[in-house]
Structures are given as structure tokens and as C-alpha cells.
Amino acid sequence: MPMPFNIPGLKIGHATNKAFHTGCTVFLCPEGTVGGVDVRGPAPGSRELALLAPDKPIQVVHGVVLTGGSAFGLATAVGVMRYLDEQGIGHPTPMKPIPIVPAAVVYDLFLGGGKHLPDAEMGYQACLNAREGDIAQGNVGAGAGVTVGKWGGPAGMMKSGFGAASLAIDELVVGAAAVVNAVGDVVAADGSVLAGACHADGSWLVDRDPLRRFPERPLAAIGTNTTLVVAVTNAKMSKVAANRLAQRVHDGMAIAIRPVHTTHDGDTAFALGTNQVEAGFDLIANAAVAMTVEAIRNAVRHAASVAGVLGLRAEV
């Protein structure tokens, strides 16, 4: 059964602008963490992803940033680099260590009007807030302004957020954290909608349109939706294996979100291995898929109503 999110040595921190419903979430990696990435959505916003490819020689990752603000939010990674630089953390070079900090964004400008965007100071603050152990979920960090169920148009969308889950199998720990800003609906194990496109009377749009034919409805603009996942394990793995794990994470997205990887989404999965215990790849991957599903569902379970957008939790 899933447990509170806790990967030994991994620190996670949120910085949230509650007034303008935006923020960022930072993952600070223990020494020796190997990273991979897989992008399936055609509308991503990102930084340093090419460096994670298996053919690139740099092996380790020092931090990962998930942020609101669309491409403007990539500035948060500058604050994370500054924080890591102050700690002397980074890839060694002749002059100084260079922190390796991949980042990916969600488009969350609707609720806050795009007036206050995540910046370097917010990224730095998220690092100061970072702690090991369980992490706040819902309308926090990069999940502050995200929504789901936009395939039926903005009137029927629901609030989503940041979700996390992890699983321990003897010494092996596998977890996933998700920021869910999808065009699609988030579904339960039986395929019923947990949160998604709904009518004013509270019924689900999918009950009358099982193919979710959003091209016939008011479109969510291309590039304004994305699900981001960071899967983490304390297992030892190569860079090739980390990239394979990132590929498998998308299986979890497809289980929990309908539809996923659409023209309007920038779906991106990161995978991190902190290299502490031995474990077989397929066990790790199966657990990562399961935890991705749980993290995505937790993102809507913990999301509160805000600015007139209904969430599964009470209004905050």
C-alpha cells in the first residue's frame, strides 16, 4: 500500500503565491543521483532536458524544478542553481561546480491572470523550504494554479494540484510526485471520473460523450496544459535505466488521465535513482507506474476549490 512520500535523502520544497495561484516545487537530490527524462506531450516547456539523454556524458542530477508560469517560470531554476552553488554542489569544472538542474513548466496563468510569475527568488525560497519526508499536497507549489477536465471548455474544468505517493518493498523505496494540469479527466481504478469536465448540474461530460471529443467544443489553447511527474527510487541504476524508467512513468499517466498526451499537453516525466540499494528494473518500473497513478489521483483528491473552480476539498 502507498505510504506518505519519503525517499531517503531526497528533499522537496514548495514555494507558493497564494494570492495569484502559482508557485514552484523543487527536488534536491542526494549526492550521486542519476536522472532521466521522457517527453510525450507535444507542447512542453523545459530546461536542461537534453543533458539527461543517455548519450550525454554527465551522469548526475543535483535538482529538478517543476514550476508554474509557463516558460517565464523557468527563471525559478536560476534561484535553485544559486542555492546549490552556495552549498558547493554541482558538476566539477576547472573553475567551479556547475549545478545540473533540469526544469519543466505548467501553464497556470488563468487563475492569477499571469500578473505575478514564479521567479528566481521563488526557486531559492523553495530550496530553503525543502525537507526530507512527507510533503504537502494540493494547491501548493507548482500545483497552486492547475486544473483538469478542460476538454469540455473552461466552464466545466475542476481544480487539481500537486500529489505524491511512495511505496516501500523491503529496503527498496519508489515514489512519484505529480503536477496535473491536464486537458483530460483524472479517473479512478474503475474508469469513473474523480475530477474532470462537468456540467453545471454536477454530472460528468463524459457520460454523454464517451470519446471526449474536445475538438467539437471550445478548445483549450494549444500548449496551456501539461502533466509533470518526477518518479524517484533509492535503487541503483544507470542513466540508460533512468531514461527507461521515465518512459514507463507515462504508463501511469495513461492509466490515470483520459485523454493524455494530446495536442494540447506538454506531458513530461523525470526519473531519478539515488543509488542506495540493489533492485531489479522491472520491479522498480512497475512500482513507479503504480505510484504515478496514485500521485495523479492524489493531486485532485487534495485540491481545494479556488476562484470559482471546484475542487474535491473544501474551499480555502
Structure description:
- The structure is a single chain.
- The chain has 316 residues and is an alpha+beta fold.
- It has a single domain, classed as 4-Layer Sandwich (L-amino peptidase D-ALA esterase/amidase), CATH 3.60.70.
- It contains 5 helices and 15 strands.
- The protein has helices at residues 76-86, 109-112, 120-129, 239-256, 281-301, and strands at residues 11-17, 22-28, 34-39, 46-47, 63-67, 103-105, 147-148, 158-159, 162-169, 172-181, 185-187, 193-195, 226-235, 257-258, 268-277.
- Strands 1-2-5-6-4 form a 5-stranded mixed sheet.
- The chain starts with 10 loop residues before the first strand and ends in a 15-residue tail after the last helix.
- The mean pLDDT is 93.
Order of helices and strands: EEEEEHEHHEEEEEEEHEEH
Low-confidence stretches: none
How many domains? The number is 1
Number of discrete helical segments: 5
Q: Summarize this, please?
A:
With 316 residues, the chain is of the alpha+beta class. It contains five helices and 15 strands. Strand 11 (185-187) and strand 12 (193-195) form a beta hairpin.
List keywords for this structure.
single chain, 316 residues, alpha+beta, L-amino peptidase D-ALA esterase/amidase, five-stranded mixed sheet, 15 strands, 20% helix, 25% strand, globular
Helices and strands in order, then pairings?
Elements: E1 11-17, E2 22-28, E3 34-39, E4 46-47, E5 63-67, H1 76-86, E6 103-105, H2 109-112, H3 120-129, E7 147-148, E8 158-159, E9 162-169, E10 172-181, E11 185-187, E12 193-195, E13 226-235, H4 239-256, E14 257-258, E15 268-277, H5 281-301
Parallel strand pairs: 5-6, 13-15
Antiparallel strand pairs: 1-2, 2-5, 3-15, 4-6, 7-8, 9-10, 10-13, 11-12, 11-14
